[in-house]
């Protein structure tokens, strides 16, 4: 693992883009390449899935990642595991203490349970995941428990859990080094009913660097 | 030409038919109404399913809205991984993240709901004698079983939960993409303040059971394999008994339905789905 604390990625930059607030994004990232996601304005949840490029029935698995490291929080050094138990990527650096993988993606349907039916027409991360994946022949059955970069979901001793105020800030980042060729799919979370985006969805920056 | 008892079709037929009436532990009772030791208060004619799922085994069943499902850890080392689908449209399925997030609860107990990815409740938990369950760690897979026991394939001695769930799902036309995050019953995981997973592996008392109510028409897939965090060197898992019986659809004044704002909305969404 190359753990880098510097703000600059090693290797040649092959992509440097802004993902608009509320938007989806996907891109192929090859084994050995690094993907950095930068929380430009702070406390912006970035919902995230990975699919193996050559067989997308293999994909990121929150449960396999948790059981492999025996911890629910994603930190520097965490290996992101697939549903087949294979390493897909490793967090090579992050300037945020931990990230979430138990809270899942917001959806129009779960919003009706959490906030009421007046939120059903609001844009949501599952809508973004569906939009991105549908362009590659994937659909709803491909949407599994995801990662929420920059989102804070503590579990209290009595079992109460919830999305609470974030611990990220402007310019903080997470960097992944890929262990296999993948398609990374992002929903820059549009949620406005809980503090995951500070009630104000903002853009994030994605940078891919060659090995 | 041999003189074996299966050397011609008629002899082979007789040989096969001679197995009639054989009993093993891991098998279904067919018809379910012939089951013995019925759940208290359940009439034989209302029984829908009675099956013992052996160590490393799996089973699947379609249940109608209102049906009750009881899973019993017969000898204290069952670990039953479960997937649930809407039987009418299996594209709707158990969503573990929504299940814990919407209920603001890490640990499923009596009164808890199994929520779908469509904002509806697939099943609710009516009774829970175990209180040691796991929504975080998911199924074992062939790789983890190979590391733990030397092998993990469906055809071997130490089948893994993920591939057992896959076979159960495949019987309903579902595939690898449909084996989503699952819930594990009887073997528990608690989360420490720093995020560490603490395995609750026992020893437990035998005969602990969990009773569910189907709130939609569902497909239930069960696999009974050692928990992925089980650190015992032997492949340790014991049989689970599964019973299901007919029951009434949840009424509007049901205590589980009305326990919280979120639960009542999940039931409202189910009732709206069935408004046809």
Q: Which oligomerization state do the chains in this entry correspond to? A: heterodimer
Sequence of secondary-structure elements of chain B: HEEEEHEEHHEEEEEEH
Biggest sheet record of chain B: 6 strands, antiparallel
What share of the residues of chain A lie within helices? 10-25%
Structural domain tally of chain A? 1
Radius of gyration of chain B: 20 Å
Major pleated sheet of chain A? 6 strands, antiparallel
- How many discrete structural domains of chain B? 1
Distance between the termini of chain A: 12 Å
User: What overall form of chain B do the CA principal axes indicate?
Assistant: globular
Number of strands of chain A: 10
Protein structure class of chain A: alpha+beta
Shape descriptor of chain A reads globular
Mean pLDDT of chain A: 95
Q: In what range is the share of β-strand residues of chain B?
A: 15-25%
Q: What's the β-strand tally of chain B?
A: 12
Strand order of the largest sheet of chain A: 1-10-3-8-6-5
**Which residues of chain A sit in consecutive blocks of at least 5 with pLDDT less than 50?**
1-6
User: Could you tell me the mean pLDDT of chain B?
Assistant: 97
Helix content of chain B: 10-25%
């Amino acid at each position: 693992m190359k753990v880098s604390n510097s703000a600059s990625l090693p290797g040649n930059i092959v992509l440097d883009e802004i993902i608009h607030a509320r938007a989806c994004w996907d891109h192929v990232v090859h084994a050995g390449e690094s993907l950095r996601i930068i929380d430009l304005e702070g406390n912006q949840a970035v919902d995230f899935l990975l699919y193996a490029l050559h067989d997308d029935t293999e994909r990121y698995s929150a449960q396999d990642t948790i059981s492999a490291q025996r911890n629910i929080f994603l930190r520097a050094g965490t290996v992101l595991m697939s549903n087949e138990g294979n390493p897909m990527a490793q967090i090579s650096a992050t300037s945020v203490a931990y990230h979430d993988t138990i809270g899942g993606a917001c959806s129009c349907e779960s919003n009706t349970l959490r906030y009421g039916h007046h939120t059903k027409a609001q844009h949501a991360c599952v809508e973004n995941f569906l939009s991105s994946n549908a362009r590659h022949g994937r659909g709803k059955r491909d949407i599994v428990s995801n990662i929420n970069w920059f989102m804070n979901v503590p579990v209290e001793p009595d079992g109460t859990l919830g999305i609470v105020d974030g611990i990220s800030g402007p310019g903080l980042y997470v960097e992944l080094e890929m262990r296999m060729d993948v398609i990374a799919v992002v929903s820059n979370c549009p949620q406005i009913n809980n503090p995951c985006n500070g009630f104000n969805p903002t853009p994030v920056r994605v940078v891919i660097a060659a090995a | 030409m041999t003189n074996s008892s299966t050397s011609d079709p008629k002899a082979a037929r007789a040989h096969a038919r001679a197995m009639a009436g054989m009993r093993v532990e891991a098998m279904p009772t067919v018809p379910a109404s012939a089951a013995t030791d019925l759940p208290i208060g359940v009439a034989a004619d209302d029984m829908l399913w009675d099956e013992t799922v052996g160590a490393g085994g799996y089973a699947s069943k379609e249940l109608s809205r209102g049906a009750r499902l009881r899973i019993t850890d017969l000898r204290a080392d069952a670990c039953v991984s479960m997937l649930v689908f809407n039987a009418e449209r299996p594209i709707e399925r158990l969503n573990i993240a929504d299940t814990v997030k919407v209920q603001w609860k890490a640990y499923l107990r009596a009164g808890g709901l199994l929520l779908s990815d469509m904002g509806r409740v697939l099943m609710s938990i009516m009774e829970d004698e175990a209180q040691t369950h796991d929504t975080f760690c998911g199924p074992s897979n062939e790789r983890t079983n190979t590391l733990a026991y030397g092998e993990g394939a469906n055809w071997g001695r130490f089948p893994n939960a993920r591939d057992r769930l896959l076979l159960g799902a495949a019987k309903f036309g579902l595939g690898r993409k449909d084996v989503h995050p699952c819930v594990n019953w009887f073997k528990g995981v608690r989360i420490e303040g720093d995020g560490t997973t603490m395995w609750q592996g026992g020893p437990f008392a035998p005969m602990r059971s969990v009773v569910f109510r189907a709130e939609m028409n569902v497909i239930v897939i069960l696999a009974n394999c050692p928990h992925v965090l089980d650190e015992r060197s032997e492949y340790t898992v014991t049989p689970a008994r599964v019973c299901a019986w007919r029951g009434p659809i949840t009424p509007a004044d049901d205590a589980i339905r009305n326990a919280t704002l979120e639960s009542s909305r999940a039931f409202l969404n189910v009732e709206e789905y069935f408004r046809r």
